[in-house]
Amino acid sequence: MQNQYDPATLEAEVQSYWVNNKTFEVTEDLEKEKFYCLSMFPYPSGKLHMGHVRNYTIGDVIARYQRMLGKNVLQPMGWDAFGLPAENAALKNRVAPAGWTYENIDYMKQQLKRLGFGYDWQRELATCQPEYYKWEQWLFTELYKKGLVYRKHAVVNWDPVDQTVLANEQVIDGRGWRSGALVERREIPQWFIKITDYADELLEEIDQLEDWPDQVRTMQRNWIGRSYGVQMDFGIEGEKDHLTIYTTRPDTLMGVTYVAVAAEHPLALRAAEQNPALAEFIEECRQGGTSEAELETIEKKGMLLGVNAVHPVSGELVPVYAANFVLMTYGTGAVMAVPGHDERDHAFARKYGIQIKQVIQPKDGSTLDIQAEAYTEKGVLQDSGPFTGQTSEDAFESIAGWLQAKGKGGKSKNYRLRDWGVSRQRYWGAPIPMIHCTHCGIVPVPLKDLPVRLPEDIVYDENTINPIKNNPEFSDCTCPECGGDAQRETDTFDTFMESSWYYARYTTPGADSMLDQRANYWLPVDQYVGGIEHAVLHLLYARFYHKLMRDAGLVNSDEPFTRLLTQGMVVADTYYRDQSDGSKHWYNPTEVDVSCDDKGRPLSATLKEDAGSVEIGGIEKMSKSKNNGVDPQTLIDRYGSDTVRLYTMFTSPPDQSLEWSDDGVEGAYRFIKRLWALAETSQDQLSQSLPTEIEYDDSQKEARRELHELLKKALYDYQRQRFNNVVSACMGMTNILYKLGDSTADLAIVKEGLSLVLRLLAPIAPHVTHHLWQTLGFGNEILESEWPEPDEQALKQESLPYVVQVNGKVRATIQVPADADKPAVEKIALENENVKRFIGDSTVRKVIVVPNKLVNVVAK
RNA sequence: GCCCGGGUGGCGAAAUUGGUAGACGCAAGAGACUUAAAAUCUCUCGACCUUAGGGUCGUGCCGGUUCGAUUCCGGCCCCGGGCACCA
Asked: pTM for the whole thing?
């Protein structure tokens, strides 16, 4: 009687085997090649979502694959534990963020264990632990001493009703998410780290990150955005002062017809003292959020200051506008405007009736209607005084030279990248270890006083938004330098600070320093896996942080992550009903029945609860707001971890989005049961030893050839991380084995085939393969087995199929002896009846033979 | 608005990188087993035409390069990710 496949029991047994054998606990071993495989750690939001399951399955598959290749594999896990959701939960449920966070960690950790991920839990960390954030506080004080940290004013979203700073996420259509009040831009002093000092290195080393997706490398290059341009001074009429601007198009300088400054620019503020309308306009410009997407899409508005700027070359006076799209805190707070050759300036000029001048003509000499449309290409200068007739490229040099000679400017390198603002006006984060002393000024907290602990024992009531602001118990302190009364900084770090170095801390658990020598054994991370949404910010900050740690002597590599895999999103169908107030109420796919037409296309959907119809809202990223998340726990309980893992690997390639389907999970389950049944039915025969010399007949040889062909493909797909194709190949191999009979030779092929399929699947479905490997007597530990290789002998063929095309269209398939040369292949192709028929009366002009593939006959 | 991706059957996808488009799986249909259902197994499955040999069309749309284009080039449309305080 064959055993039933019972994943719950089986998986628990295999998991305790791993725990008892400390299978995934690793130490530095100089005898073996190391492999550090890391998945982006989760924010402990409550429970795992499908995106986590996908991310960690991909990581675990890679880790186990590398381990089966014989490497010393480190795969750790931890928690990105500081952040906004804990504060939101605290406000909603009156619970302290710390407790909420630790409870979530406990639950999610148990879920990760249930999925069978091979983590070394000894190295687990949570970024809200003082022993963790102590060291980033320390590094920050060191950077301050080196001059890499400074303080300046920067804009934040201010909610005037709740009297609090809002995250961009909390600004919805320009209003505070809780209060609904119009948000204002406000400037407050904040801490910055000089990432721009490392801009060139961060940019240039992207070229060496060969195993990163091109997409991510391009995004980082564009984000850093190094440009070469010219900086120059415009005079201000009747004043000694001047406005400094930067442009990448100095060749258009003679086409400047106005200058725009930020509404908060001192020049604008001064002009507003005499001009109530301007003062009102400046006030209006303060409204709205700070996000770039918002600033770039707002209606461009401006107002004359009544002040003129002096053109640096012509000496002409051009009007100065205050404009809502120029920001005081970016660049110099002033821009030159060339409506003839810039689209935004053109639109603005048309709106306010400003002169539009053409100073560039196309190189092909064509004429333009510059009043109708800006010409933004490079060309030849016209009406540009001494520079007329030069090409844009030449004019760049000569204008820069002219400005430099007159002491009015010169060439300048510029970056789009801005310094990293790390201050957050929030409670649930790592305190910034700085002290404000009335005598000594700013004093960093010395190492002996670190960590600056965040009080966790906090009572929340309805008025508590930030329990450490205006809290003398936290902020009162003595100055480490003069011993006098002083105040602690009450802002906390951006949570990107914690996520920028956790990968390094995993390598040195328990170290009484930021890192120790163990870090240089494991680093850099060989494979990093995480969502594409982190392509720029997190991955750029982590690269930066690695260089900071290198320059502090803590690591000896330049880059933290050698190979990067950015996984796609998990998406699912959405269903909703329109509400009377115009909003939509979203239903979870599990609450809905969908009816389909005879082709299987969805026609309509009804709610299970009341049988009434619901709208089909299309496929979207799984999210709380669209209520289309599928709880992985339900699936794990029903099918087991192997099925969930296999399904997520099989459904789409790791870097593409994964569309959820319950039926697909059923299919993955069916495959595992098929594999199980095959192994169990023939278990008795298979576990016996079979003769070593076996004569295979032609169809058995063909079966073996196909098996090894699929094996070859699977191995190739492991290398290029197309795990969906690996699963396809395993399914194909299993189908071949199912067609075999029970002769000794057939059984030998089944046994051989199973040993291949089990090893190929071991990284993906580790529990069932571990069990079957033992059952069939292949060995005790599949993870320690030899990684399979195709049998070249089995792959040999006597004749090969060729496709024959006539003028590019397939007309026949022919069998050609494997050793035939090109003329022989050509001869066989031209003798084919159907080929002859399509050549007909026309003459054969050319015959193209692609070895082992196809013949194309060109006939006219 | 700016930067980066993606678009292939009813659906998820494959095509070893310019060489047979649709492997593998889901759904659907037919059949076998069963008193029946479930499970399992077998077959069919891009569209249209067909004298049943096969033929024509087909990889978002329009054009180009090539003996040959899902793949390369140019232009467009649609969908998604990021935009510095969500993580």
From this structure: 0.94
User: Is residue A80's beta carbon less than 7 angstroms from any atom in nucleic acid strand B?
Assistant: yes
Confidence check on the interface: ipTM exceeds 0.85, yes or no:
yes
CA distances in angstroms from A274 to A200, A279, A530, listed in the order given:
45, 9, 55
Q: Nucleic chain B: which protein residues 740-799 of A have CB below 7 A from it?
A: none
pLDDT digits (tens, 9 = 90+) for A567-591: 988 877 777 777 776 566 778 777 7
The predicted structure's pLDDT at residue A663? 81
- Residues whose CB is less than 8 angstroms from the CB of residue A41 and which lie 6 or more positions away in sequence, other chains included: A77, A78, A79, A80, A499, A502
Q: Is pLDDT of A17 > 50?
A: yes
| pLDDT reading at A683 higher than 80 | no
Residue written as token pair 């509404």? A263
DSSP H or E run through A273: none
pLDDT, one tens digit per residue, over A363-397 is 877 788 889 888 888 899 999 999 999 999 999 99
Higher pLDDT: A611 or A555? It is A555
CA A466 to chain centre: 30
For residue A598, the model assigns a pLDDT of 47
Burial letters A779-794, b for 16+ CB under 10 A, else e: eeebbebeebebbeeb
Cα–Cα distance for residue pair A672/A669, rounded to 1 Å: 5
Token readout for A669 is 């389950």
**Torsion, CA A180, CA A165, CA A49, CA A507, rounded to 10:** 180
End-to-end CA distance of chain A: 68
The dihedral over CA atoms of A432, A438, A442, A443, expressed in degrees to the nearest 10, equals -80
- Cα(A344)–Cα(A338) distance, rounded to whole angstroms? 9
Number of DSSP helices (H) and strands (E) in chain A, helices first: 28, 35
Token pair belonging to A642: 């192997």
B strand bases under 7 Å from protein CB: 1-6, 10-17, 19-21, 23-29, 39-42, 53-57, 67-69, 80-87
